[in-house]
Amino acid sequence: MKKLSIVLFILTLAVLGCTKGTEEKAAEKAIETATGKKVEADLSDGSVKLKSEDGTFEMTSGDSAELPEGFPKDVYVYENASIQMAMDMPHGMSVGLHTSDGVRKVSDAYKKAMEKEGWKKFSATDAGDSYHLVYGKEQEDRMAQITIAREDDKTVIALSISRKQ
Tens digits of per-residue pLDDT, 15-67? Predict the structure, then answer.
């Protein structure tokens, strides 16, 4: 929960558009206070980059968002969707996408594509207007969580991929 609060704090600063350099210093101080670890923050070019002894966290959003470098080729990215947000963290990656296609069409595509790539389905929750899918590759100690939900006139897809720690 503490990490989520930190990320939300940083994003709020970036959205508010504080004076150049001010948001980086505020973010560094907040994270150092919350975690007890020294970090370097860079909030330029529509992205958030944090570096610490634990690794690097990078996030892009909006027009500058693209798949993180090294995004796994065996994780399906819905073809008729635009990337809205991407995060690369020390132990995983997350991507947020939007599409005008319906929830069922998107979830059916994910089920077919992930299993074709050798992912084992651990769980699937169908709530009608949303789906939550969990896949794993136990031999590689990786997990993929996919949430698909309707929001206003679009379908939102949230992909989270965890890597071996």
Answer: 444 444 665 676 666 666 666 667 676 666 666 666 667 776 677 777 778 89
58 belongs to a structural domain: no
Q: What is the DSSP letter of 22?
A: H
CA distance 162 to 165: 9
What whole-number distance in Å separates Cα of residue 24 and Cα of residue 155? 33
Q: Please check whether residue 120 is in contact with residue 136, taking contact to mean a CB–CB distance below 8 angstroms.
A: yes
Q: Do 163 and 139 lie in a common domain? A: yes
Is there a domain that residue 18 lies in? yes
Distance in angstroms (rounded) separating the CA atoms of residues 152 and 155: 8
For residue range 71-129, list pLDDT tens digits in order: 999 999 999 999 998 888 878 898 999 999 999 999 999 999 999 999 999 999 999 88
| 92 and 127 part of one domain | yes
Full domain range(s) for residue 100: 65-165
Residue 132 pairs in a beta bridge with 125, 147
Same domain, 13 and 74: no
What's the pTM value of the predicted model, to 2 decimals? 0.73
How far is it, in rounded angstroms, from Cα 109 to Cα 78?
8
In DSSP terms, which residues pair with 61 in a beta bridge? Answer: 85
Residue 7 neighbours by CB distance under 10 Å: 18
Residue 115: which CATH number?
3.30.310
